[in-house]
Structures are given as C-alpha cells and as structure tokens.
Design brief:
By secondary structure, this protein is α/β, with parallel strands linked by helices. It has two domains: about 260 residues, 3-Layer(aba) Sandwich (Aminopeptidase); about 100 residues, no CATH class. It has 14 helices and ten strands. The strands form two sheets. The protein has a seven-stranded mixed beta sheet with strand order 1-2-4-3-5-10-6, sandwiched between helices. A hairpin with a 5-residue loop joins β7 and β8. α1 packs across α14 and α12 crosses α14. The longest helix is centred in the N-terminal third of the chain and has 22 residues. It is globular, with a radius of gyration of 22 Å. The relative contact order is 0.18. The model has no long low-confidence stretch (mean pLDDT about 95).
Length: about 400
Amino acid sequence: MTADQRPDEWRRLTCDEVIRAYAGVARLPTSPGERRVAVALAERLRGLGYRAGVEPVRATSSYALPIGLLSAAGLAAGLISGYGTRRSAVRWGAAVVAAAAAAAIAEDVSGGARWFRQAVLPRRWAHNVVAYGGDPSASRTVVVFAHHDAAPSGVIFDQRVLRWVARHFPGVIAAAKENPPTWWPVILGPALVAVGAVRGDRRIGGLGTALTAVNLAFLIDVGRRPAVPGANDNLSGVAALVCVARALQRDPVSGLRVVLLSAGAEEALQEGIRGFARRHFPDLGPGTCFVNLESVGSGRLALLEGEGPVLMRDYPEAFRRFVAECARDLGVPILRGLRSRNSTDSEVPRRHGYPVATIVSLDHDKLITHYHLDSDVPDNVDLDSVVSAAELAEAVVRRLAREDPAA
C-alpha cells in the first residue's frame, strides 16, 4: 500500500479488478459465459477460504421468449376479433385467448408459478455460486447475494426520453418515488383485446391490438440482442459481494452463519434464485435475513422500500429500518422512500416470508446508469458507490452477528 492510499483502499482495488475481470464475458442467462463466470467466482471464493461451489439449476434463458409468445397470442386474438366477424363463438374464443395471455403475462412477471414457461419452454441450466462462512454452529443465517449474469439491450431501454424529462422537469424527478411501470402496457395490450372482443368494440380491440404489436416488437428486439457488458448491472454487486467475503475472512464473525450467493439467470426474471430457493430455503431456518446487492455503481445508494412489476409489495419494515440504522452508524448516505416497478432477486425471499433488504444505486436523475445498455462498461461504474455498498453490507452482517433485528 502506498502512502497516499486509504487503509481500506483494497476494497476499491478489489471492486475494480472483479468488474474488469468479467465484464468482457458474454453472460446471458444459462449461457456458457454465465457458467464460466460462476466457475471463476467459486474459485475466487475458495481462494479466500470459503467452502464454495457452483450449483446448476433448471431455468429458462430469457423473459423475452415466454412474454413474447404470450404477446403474440394476444396479437393473434386481436387480429381475429378485429376482422369484423359476427360469429359470437369466434369473438368469445379470441377474448378467452387474449384474457389468458394477459393473465399469464401478469403471473409470469410478478414471480408466480410460471405455468406457461413450465409447460411450453425448454429448461436449460443456470449456474449459481454458493459459498459458506461465518459460524457454522449458529442458529441464525444471513444471505448476502448478487447476480453475475448480464442482460441483453433493446430500444426500450434507451434513457434519452427520461433524461430529457429530468432536464426540463426536475420537479417531476424530485417527487418521483417509483420508476415507470414497464410491464403494465404489456399486460394491458391483450387485456384490451379481450375487452374489445367481449363487447364487440373495434376501437378498444384495435387499441389493444396495436399496443400488443408494439410490445411484441420491443420483446423481439430484446430477444435477438447479445449481452451487454453488465459492469454496473450487476458486476458491481458481485464485486461488493467479493469485498464482503474478503472482509469477513480477515475478521470473521461468530454467532451467525453467512451464505454468499451469486445467482445466475436473474435477467430471465429471477430464475437462478428460484432454483436456490427450491434447494436451500427448507434448511435456512426462520431467523434468516437476506441482503441484496443490485446495481450499486450508479453513484448514490438507495434502500428500496419494496418492488412490484404488477402490484407493489413492501419488504418487511423492521429489517429495512435495521439496515438504514447500519448506514447511519457507518456514515453512508442512503436514499429512502423509493420503490421499484422492476423485479429483483429480492422478490423470491420476500415471497417466502424472509426479511430482505435491497441496496441499489441511482444517479442524479434517479436512474440506474447505463441500464441494459452497451455502455454499461467498467469505466462508467462509480467505484466509490460500490465500495460504500460493500461496507454497508459488511456492517449489516457484523451487527446481525451481535443482535437479532426481530428481537
């Protein structure tokens, strides 16, 4: 360490090295690149003294394919019902198909059983990295997690309109507590087709058909794209996870089991952590807490209050308060009061009743920088933000080792 380095400069160097090591690997869900990074991460964690391994889990490779197929069904129903047929059986059949498509899309994006994916799509292998540390005899567990796969890009992710709004209407951005509900129009399209078919109303049905066609075009665009570098989303979270692992190896905790998870197939809508849940949730116990490190390199850390692509659901309040107190004691500024209309891996433990905290980051426009864009490269990551996220996650683990937030 040179004289001008901070005592904890190793965190910054570690974060930069981890992000740059994997950003050049194409890591779409269930791809060979996703597996390659999983193997490398497991080796890295074993080198730090953890019992770590790669766990293959069954997963679909994209959200664009199942949602695209359902949108195509809704579009077909809209076209059939819109040709002016007077046969009520045809109109009612189109209505049933469109309504079923809308319901299945809502069920899929909100993290339900995903019966359509299960029944129709081939299952491939995603690759989770799971490492164990802390006190193996402890009765309570904390899971610190991120995801190492990367998303494809698409026209829908272009941020120029949102940036324009931020420049010309800063009050709107300042007042915003949620991001736009991206999935609502995708559900609304076939829903309107169904309503139009039932009522025999060409205007409503035509609007639903047009909206569904636009949504399908966006999904096709996403489905044909390669992976972005994913430096911020979510190698920043992986880098922070590695920093936590290294800090706990240097100064271990007692009275708390620590599980470090880097999930695959998050960008297929949480397929990797769903596999982790099937395999590990029965053994974790009721005293388990989850800390999610998600896209933490945008500049300003935020502690999400909840998330919901369809219906908003808050995370358990007591643990959110616990994490916010850790940030305050550490002197790390953290935004509060924000909720996400996108889904993260946190939704899976929340559905199972576990306390979960989601640490994200936003820039001055309340946007994740370079989100799902080809410009999400290591040079565009705010390393200070990543280091702060790692320090906060470590502080949460150490306080959890001393006290139970549910007590």
